[in-house]
Amino acid sequence: MRAVERAAIRVHILGIGLNEDASDRRMLDELHRRGYRLQSRELRSVLNELVGRGLVGVREASAGYPGRRTYETTPAGRMSWAEECRALSKLTHEVFGTRVPPLPPQVGIDDSQAWLSTGDLEDAEDG
Predict the structure, then answer these.
(1) In 3D, which of 35, 21, 19 has the Cα closest to residue 9?
(2) Residue 82 CB-density burial (10 A; 0-12 exposed, 13-18 middle, 19+ buried)
(3) Where are the beta strands (DSSP E) in 1-127?
(4) How does pLDDT run across 1-38, given as a tens digit for each residue?
(5) What's the mean per-residue pLDDT of the chain?
(6) DSSP secondary-structure letter at 35?
(7) What is the distance between the alpha carbons of residues 109 and 85, in angstroms, rounded to a whole number?
(8) Residue whose C-alpha is closest to residue 100's, from 80, 76, 116
């Protein structure tokens, strides 16, 4: 898996876990729906990395579902998600000339607090 693709997959995993607990099966299905072709072991590797960094929390499923876990993005993961979204957006802008989109409201900070805002890009284009 290439570094940029791995970064995009991390962003998707963190984004999936922003508002709900999600199983690895749900994440894999969602990533496949978005066009990523990765195996369960590759997903597990990324999830283990995110858990190890404290960006995703793990919850063991209730009785009757042995070995089934769900994952939820932690507060540190929310900030990492925002930072990685911005970095990927910046890269997209540099490569393809698109504008950096504003931060989603669920991040909890507005675009004016971001290290690079849409306003910064507009100022750069005007000047």
Answers:
(1) 35
(2) buried
(3) 22-23, 56-60, 69-73
(4) 688 788 889 998 998 888 888 888 889 998 998 888 88
(5) 77
(6) T
(7) 13
(8) 116
